[in-house]
Amino acid sequence: MKGSKALLRSIEEALEVLEDHAPPSSPRQDLVPLPLSSLLEQCRQMGEQIAARPPEPIRTLHHFACTGGTLVSKCLAAMPNTEVLSEVDPLSALTHLHFAPTDLLLHIRHSNRGVPDGVLVDMFLAALKVMYDHSLTTGTRLVLRDHTHSHFCYGPNIPERPTLREMVERNHPVLSVVTLRHPLDSYLSLERNNWRHYIPPTFDEYCRRYLAFLDRYDGVATFKYEDLTTATDETLMAICDALQLTFVAEFRDYLSLVHLTGDSGRSGLDISPKPRRPVPEDVEAECRSSGYYQTLCARLDYEPDTQQLQE
Among residues 120, 107, 113, 222, which one has the least CA distance to residue 162? Predict the structure, then answer.
């Protein structure tokens, strides 16, 4: 009992000291708690504001192989609260079953009976929903980097099936960007990597498929790899703005920590223009004869000149 009285007396003395030293602009009555009804009203208003917000989008990033897509993806992954899943396409036929104990889609695709594409898409969207919900609880923004090569540059024909963006749009709002590179430069890199997986494996066919890709993503914001190498911050700021991501100039400090699949392009963290690879005579002849190449360069505002520097 004595201890309780002493404690109470100490608290009263402390309150008196605080009251004596309180600034005139903060009278004691301001410390009176708000009524419970007022707090509940504030909570209700906050709940309504949260419910009125548009749902968080999923971002998608699309580009052809050897167009600097991995570098763009790494830069985005280095931005605050951003999660990039690299080379995503649940309907890709470029799959190899070796040892993949965690990849249920791959096992079902290679099962004895197989399943329709619609089942694969449903499974992908179900898994994506889990990842999306997790991103909401952690405050991260989800970016899916498309494996566009699987859709537009594999096999004898471009398959009639939904794009990654169209699949994701079934269940989620989507923000998308397309990144580009001069088609001659990307083709020369594709040839060097032996990634001409389409038939016939000609430069003219490559340009035809590039145009078909652009048609499917008509209206989506586009950004050039060359601009990224010459005006890095400005280009990334514009991409982040289109995707509603936060841009920070310190992203370079974190690039070395980012590891993504598809990292087969330039080595190191240097972001700068590089000279064009030598153009073989047969490719140079195709550049002159290909109507698709001329159309593609005009559409993307690139010079078709084979001697210009790669930026």
Answer: 120
| pLDDT for residue 311 | 42
Identity at 120, one-letter amino acid code: L
pLDDT of residue 111: 85
Q: Are 78 and 258 a contacting pair, CB within 8 Å?
A: yes
The CATH label, of 1.10.10.10, 3.40.50.1360, 3.40.50.300, 3.30.1360.130, for the domain at 67-91+123-300 is 3.40.50.300
**For the chain (length 311 residues), average pLDDT per consecutive 10?**
59 60 53 70 77 88 96 96 96 85 88 90 96 95 97 96 97 98 96 95 97 97 97 97 97 91 65 89 94 97 77 42
Per-residue model confidence (pLDDT) at position 267: 53
